[in-house]
Amino acid sequence: MITRRSLALATAGLPAAGGARAQGQWPERPVRLIIGFPAGGPTDLGGRLLQDPLGRLWGQPLVIENRAGASQVIASEAVARSAPDGYTLFLAASTHTSNAAVYTRLPYDTLNDFTPIVNLYASPTVLFVGRNSPIRTAQDLVAAAKRDPGMTFATSGNGTSGHFATEIFRRKVGIEVTVVAFRGAAPALQEVIAGRVAATFSTLSGAIGLAREGALRPLAIGGPQRVEVLPDLQTLDELGMGIPDTSPWYGFIAPRGLPRPIVDRVSTDVIGLLRDPAIARRIVDVGGIVLAEGPEVFDRRIRSELAENAVIAREAGIRVE
Fold first, then answer.
1. Which Pfam families match (predicted)?
2. Which of 71, 94, 118, 216 is 20 to 30 A away from residue 125, measured at CA?
């Protein structure tokens, strides 16, 4: 469970915002932040949270551009082809690493065409059904799926964390389901709420508001631990249905070749903002876990996940042509 102490530890010792301000004149015009999913989803949340504070720090607007589609591939390609001048940044979800494992081919090199800058936060994956569903527990869902092998699961796109969680979960508990991919978390959740799709694995940060309103019913956490905002919600591990942690992260990435002074400036300013108790608390309050990982740590995470996701995709049979 996230506590005030763990929050303090997560952000302790991080450099203050603006420490790299003396490096160069960047930015001299608005900075574009591309997000590969629709507005209102968990990836978009991080951009909206930092948009105005970063604009004030930089003296230039941070303009958010949502380019949804193909599980973030469209946005990733746009970023990879952009000039490495600091005026195009990418708020990527961890789909960035899973896409390399599930797509037959990509129009970019995940490892070599990008510059990791700063990883903001992670969000546990949670198993949800709609408010009018007769399913009350994860055990109920498994039993219902065994009676109805055509049960539908929504995902925010092929190869996303929710897709990984669904495929691993169904193999773990021995059920067959029909996976329906949508163009982002928001439309997927709406289909579950409407009852047109039975269930979904979705990130808590993107669904916590709907869960608090009663529109979604959380059944279990897909991650390794309970969370502060839903302290009574058990994990799949506790229920004997444990799956590898598929909780996604959300971080700033840029095209390959971004000058180091700009990397340092963005990383330092973002980490400084994540030290702000008000901003950190907003992340925790939606079920997020503050990471505040700088360029080197973020780069190691990406390299590690590229290898791990390739194994998971192969074992779970996740492939996108």
1. TctC
2. 118
Angle at 67 between CA 62 and CA 71, to 5 degrees: 125
pLDDT digits (tens, 9 = 90+) for 172-205: 999 999 999 998 888 999 999 999 999 999 989 8
**CA-to-CA dists, residue 305 to 120, 194, 223, 242, 302, angstroms:** 16, 34, 16, 19, 5
Distance (Å, whole) CA 199 – CA 105: 29
Return the residue matching tokens 């608090």. 212
Q: Which of 146, 134, 260, 247 is nearest to 198 (CA)?
A: 134
The DSSP result for 163-208, as a single string, is HHHHHHHHHHHT---EEEE-SSHHHHHHHHHHTSS-EEEEEHHHHH
Q: Distance between CA 297 and CA 169 in Å, rounded?
A: 29
Chain position carrying tokens 């915002």:
17
Q: What is the pTM of this model?
A: 0.81
Residue 59 and residue 54: Cα distance in Å, rounded? 8
pLDDT, tens digit, for every residue of 123-147?
999 999 999 999 999 999 999 999 9
Contact 76, 96 (CB under 8 A): yes
* Longest CA span, the chain: 64
Contact criterion met (CB below 8 Å) for 319 and 313: yes
